[in-house]
Amino acid sequence: DLQICQHRAPTCCTKKMEESYQAAVRRERTQSIQALNFELKYMIVGHITAFQEAFESLLRFAENRTSSLFETAYRPMAKEAAEPVKELFTDLSLYILGAETTVESAVLRFFDSLFPLVYSRLINPGITDLSEDYTECLRLTRQDINPFGRYSKNMVTELSESLWASRMLSQALSLGIEVINTTEHAAVTKECGRALVKMQYCPHCQGLTLIRPCVGYCLNVMRGCLASVAELDGQWREFISTLEYLAGEVAASQALEVALLGMWSSINEAILHAQLNGPQLSATVDKVCGQPKQPEANLSSASVVPVKEVAEAQTFVMAHASLNSKRREFINYMKRSRTFYASVAERLCDGDLVMRDSSTCWNGEDVV
């Protein structure tokens, strides 16, 4: 009553053994593909981690630099500015990781939060009425009167251009892992299961436990079983070309480094612009939001301390160099994996599965 390992000679197999063999070949096929995928997946996961760590290091440096701007140049508002600064860099980090947000919304939200502080601590220092309603009115007014001039929009443009490629590369790497995981668990069809049993276990039914499949026979069976996986070949090659392009964009002219390094300068210029236009801004705000309560003695708004150049640039450059080095190593490895999905059958039939150095092998029907 055997369904797969039918043979003229006497057999030592039963139908139940055949069913066990079918379960075994499904399990073994999954394990063998996982073993093939392991190195590729390890490289991609490793690069995702290295990429995120290096990028977070760059962001932390830029955040510390921006915080130091407020502590040295705008001390009256440094404590209150800490939260908007933190939010800005958190939003940028989430953007890189693929969150449903934009650089523009992150930057403009930061300047919305910054304007009430600049207005009440620098343009009109000593304002005591900073109620929620008055603060919200200042936030909304920022969008209409544009107190920070072109600097806020310039910052959006510079960051959007340099962070876009990093975001796309991060998403592409995650997609690569998804594809690999999907191929590991591709269903084994009934026909494929029967063909694998016939190739690997039917010789056992005749007591031929040491005979292995012939190379050509193995390739035919594996190519049939992995036809759906091999169809990924064209898209996988295209995917690797896209990775190359994005990695090149991330490294191009150190745009990422320049944009993050320049953030504190853009914010400083924006605040100075608002201070220079203080009287006009005050007149407009008074019309829209009403006049805030003022103490009798007004503090001078001219006490702007020049910003000291931060001397920790070496850490920043090292993080960027580390990112570029990891990127080159990774892209070189991925280029070598271009034919990964075209050659899965060949790689599975390479090694212990088939008989290479012997004159006898199993052809699916008999020993030849």
Automatic annotation (TrEMBL):
Membrane topology: Lipid-anchor; GPI-anchor
Stored Pfam families: Glypican (PF01153)
GO biological-process terms attached to the record: cell migration; positive regulation of canonical Wnt signaling pathway; regulation of protein localization to membrane
Gene Ontology, cellular component aspect: cell surface; extracellular region; plasma membrane; side of membrane
Domain of life: Eukaryota
Entry-linked InterPro entries: Glypican, Glypican_CS
Keyword Phosphoprotein: no
Keywords from the UniProt entry: Cell membrane, Glycoprotein, GPI-anchor, Heparan sulfate, Lipoprotein, Membrane, Proteoglycan, Signal
Location in or out of the cell: Cell membrane
Functional summary from the UniProt entry: Cell surface proteoglycan.
Family classification: Belongs to the glypican family.
Protein name: GPC5 protein
Biological source species: Formicarius rufipectus
